[in-house]
Amino acid sequence: MNQSKAVLLMVISMLAAFGCGYSEEEMQVKRDRIDQLTRALDKLEQDHRDLQERFKVVAGENSGLTERLRQMGFESADAKRMNEELMKRVDELNAEKRRAQQRQATFRNMIEKFKKMVDSGKLRVRIVRNRMVVELAENILFDSGKAGLKRGGEEALTEVAGVLASIPNREFQVTGHTDNVPIKSRRFPSNWELSTARAVTVTRYLANSGVPAARLSAAGFADTQPVASNDSDDGRAQNRRIEIVLMPNLEELPDLSALAEETK
Fold this sequence. Notes:
Elements: H1 3-17, H2 24-72, H3 76-113, H4 115-119, E1 124-128, E2 131-137, H5 138-141, H6 151-165, E3 172-177, H7 191-208, E4 216-220, H8 233-239, E5 241-246
Parallel strand pairs: 3-4
Antiparallel strand pairs: 1-2, 2-5, 3-5
């Protein structure tokens, strides 16, 4: 059993032991969160296994091709060149595997550090488009239609900042989201202004709480990225949220250098 699943099983055991303090609905929500994180980690581990298999295939191709070239009478210089190309590809796969391992380790580390806040209902952690997203509900951070942090919101963000500051060489984007109910006030003519102002408020608080400002950015999405239907009170409440997205490093992004000449 790997470390990540051991942590999740420990959470399940804790929930079972102290379940008398929660309703069945609350217990199911927590079980669903744990199931989601377990599936996300399983996918990361499968990606790691796939990289290992690709490495074995390339290594086998290297050995077999060298022997076939010898049998076909290729010049040693040609064989050497092709062997170097194959070895370069092996090195690239090894580097890709190491990056995948590092990414998994970072995700596991964040999940473990956020475990207490997830258990208390202050936030939830999701994997969206292969990115880790820390989500905080509006009612924890802000009053309705406002962009000033509540006392409880400041306390939650202080805990979050401690975790983010401990993760090296990573950038985080804070994004504000609203439901589809229009707002129109002197300060916020629409949900675009409200969602952006809230994202900036959270970003500034994190920067003042120890997260390097150079590793933070803010964005507002209004109601354009709902996570639930806006046809119910519960759905709208889920859509009013702040997300903190763990951004990929440059080496994790696709190499577009071949397109550089085409853009000139």
